[in-house]
Design goal:
By secondary structure, the protein is an alpha/beta fold. 52% of the residues lie in helices and 14% in strands.
């Protein structure tokens, strides 16, 4: 079982749904406990689906924006965020919306700094092209932004950091602009700093709401996705601390 599939059991929507199903089975032996489990699972799923709840959770992960170009760095590292496989309109695998948001900001930083770009993302789902290859194609073929290095072997942020350091350290580069979503930045920054980089955070796509609307209180798929981002980051932070501790203990 892959780490991604294993984590899904602990994340919404599957985790609260499992609680509901467990309650349905428990009713036969303990009706009170079963009903409580069903109610708890339903309430958790409902709450996590409210956009205001999701954005508020994600906001706890996001640092206030500071222009990264006020500091110097020697390269731009852009993390992959997922694929759009076998896209019929493009005739190949290409990046999904999340990766596209990161690429756009990476291209923006390149226009301001002219620093060389490294794209990093493997192929955890067995698609025809790795995320890094998809990212390179968008930057170079569609936007005419050069990509100097690619890491196509990394399937998680921990490996993104290790493999990127192996590539860039050989080029004499340790100080980087790190591009990822604002809600993912703290975990990514920690992973890249532990790998040996001096990191200048370059976050994009803030989820914080500044002007509330009625829709922010109505359960939606967007709200559930935001909550899932928060839960994934919390789970990932624990896993990375454990993995770092194990690596340090074995070295």
């Amino acid at each position: 079982m892959s780490a991604t599939l294993a984590a899904a059991w602990l994340l919404p929507p599957l985790a609260p749904l499992l609680l509901i199903f467990a309650g349905l089975f428990a009713i036969k032996s303990n009706a009170r406990a079963g009903h409580l489990m069903i109610a708890a699972g339903a309430l958790i799923l409902l709450a996590l689906s409210i956009p205001l709840v999701g954005s508020s959770l994600v906001a706890t992960l996001e640092e206030p924006f500071a222009d990264p170009t006020r500091e110097s760095a020697d390269a731009i590292v852009i993390l992959g965020g997922g694929s759009y496989p076998a896209a019929p309109e493009y005739g190949r695998d290409t990046v999904n919306g999340s990766t596209l948001e990161r690429l756009r900001y990476g291209a923006f930083l390149f226009a301001k700094t002219s620093k060389p770009i490294l794209v990093t993302g493997g192929d955890p789902h067995g698609f025809a092209l790795s995320e890094a290859a998809q990212m390179r194609a968008v930057l170079q073929d569609e936007w005419h932004v050069p990509v100097k290095w690619s890491d196509e072997r990394s399937n998680n942020t921990f490996d993104n950091a290790r493999n990127s350091y192996s590539i860039l350290n050989a080029a004499g580069i340790q100080r980087i602009y790190l591009v990822t979503h604002a809600w993912h930045m703290e975990r990514a920054r920690r992973a890249f700093a532990n790998a040996g980089f001096a990191v200048v955070p370059a976050p994009t796509r803030y989820a914080t709401h500044h002007h509330l609307q009625f829709e922010d209180f109505v359960p939606s798929a967007e709200g559930l996705q935001l909550s899932a981002h928060f839960c994934r980051e919390a789970l990932g932070a624990v896993w990375y601390r454990l993995r770092t501790a194990i690596d340090q203990g074995s070295s």
